[in-house]
Amino acid sequence: MASVELQAEPESVGLSSRQLARVDAWRERLVAEGKLAGATTLVMRRGKVAHLGCSGLADLARGTPMAPDTLLRIYSMTKPLTSVALMLLYEEGLFQLDDPITAALPCFRDMRVATGGNRAKLETEPAHRDITYRDLLTHTSGLTYGFMNATLVDELYRNQGIDFQTSDRSLAALVEQAAGLPLIAQPGTAWNYSIATDVVGQLVAVLSGRDFADFLRERVLLPLGMTETDFAVPDAARPRFAANYMRGPDGRPKLIDDPEASPFLRRRAIASGGGGLVSTAGDYLRFCRMMLNKGELDGTRLLGRKTVELMTMNHLGGDLASLGTPRFSESSYDGIGFGLGFSVMLDPARAQIAGTPGEYAWGGVASTAFWIDPAEEMAVLLLAQLTPSSTYPIRRELRVMTYAAITD
User: Fold this and answer.
1) Domain boundaries, the chain
2) Which CATH number fits domain 70-353: 3.10.450.710, 3.40.710.10, 3.30.420.10, 3.90.1180.10?
């Protein structure tokens, strides 16, 4: 088990104890007001955990306290790990970022792009070019998510069951089915959050000749010591698995996924590289440490330094707001770019939030988030289980408070 504990006094790593105490008070207030059932916050700087706090309950019905070893659904915080898995194969020379994915996934040849029409007749045109590896990693592929409820193509996804979270079909079969539907934009022209990282998982499987879940476990998770991060909760860990909630009509948490009856208790035929993992604070911190160390952790080098630098720079040529209509987050995307699996801070003033150019981040739909700031040698984790993450602006609030804690 990747345990986590306090390792340093805040002042010894250039942080303010007084300001970090405000994080504790904020977290306790969110629980006391019934906004969150429970939450964990963690701040690491200069390789030392200087703040770790847990409030409330992981499971209201059973009175299980939120703890550093609580297992949580990290949903889209799976995406950076899947992206790392693909980049391991990039380092082996198996593809270039501007290569079309059709050599590995021929089902994506001759794609069509939706241009208008209605439910009775969707109008399309041929894709100007094939989807590339970089298109998938940066969410500029033209793929979408069915839950977006924004386009006619989204509706096709829903009607045809293109849902990597709930399907019991194989990863290969669902990817091939998705490839039979139109794109919502020409590849490379617009940023649209999508199933792209699930397609990345299938590329990992094809290029490696291995089952994607097995590859991720053996090449990424186990080398990093992330022994509790997986696509299903093992029997022995069930008492530590949190419940998932939404805001109920009375404003208090309403159960939407019981930890004793959750789909995450069984291993499904499909492993969602876009959102299928459960993890703990200690496990995900090890991933953050590896990234901060430019690809190395405890003597194990997972990625080369230049690969990490490539993944965490902006690949869009502008910010997210200029390349599409951002959806599914409480954060503005002015001043925010995107790398190969991570959002990237470009301009804190335009983003209207404290931060550092070059800081990278992402989060999950159940109110989990992380950000890594190489310039400040800092990583922050926020772990809760409230869906959707946009219910309250807790990510932005925590960002302000943690950056305000820097004293040097």
Assistant:
1) 70-353
2) 3.40.710.10
Structure-block tokens of residue 37: 């059932």
Say if CB 142 and CB 192 are below 8 A apart: yes
Question: Tokens in use for 362?
Answer: 């992402």
Residue 133 has pLDDT above 50, yes or no: yes
Higher local confidence (pLDDT), 148 or 177: 177
Is 215 in contact with 206 (CB distance < 8 Å)?
Answer: no
Query: What is the predicted pLDDT for the residue at 119?
Result: 85
Region at 34 (left for phi over 0; alpha for psi -120 to 50; beta for the rest)? left
CA angle 378, 380, 382 (to 5 degrees): 180
Is residue 42 within 8 Å of 285, Cβ to Cβ? yes
pLDDT over 60 at 19, yes or no: yes
> Who contacts 26 (Cβ-Cβ below 8 Å, separation ≥6)?
397, 398, 401
| Token pair for 282 | 């200690």
Please answer whether residues 84 and 220 qualify as being in contact, where contact means their C-beta atoms are separated by less than 8 angstroms: yes
H or E stretch at 254: strand 253-257
Both tokens assigned to 335: 């001043």
3-state secondary structure 14-51: CECHHHHHHHHHHHHHHHHCCCCCEEEEEEEECCEEEE
The answer to whether the beta carbons of residues 26 and 19 sit under 8 Å apart is: no
Distance CA 47, CA 27 (A): 24
Amino acid (one-letter) located at 51: H
Structural contact between residues 360 and 372, judged by C-beta atoms closer than 8 angstroms? yes
CB 278 within 8 A of CB 233: yes
Note if the pTM is more than 0.70: yes
Type of residue found at 78: T
3-state secondary structure of 315: coil
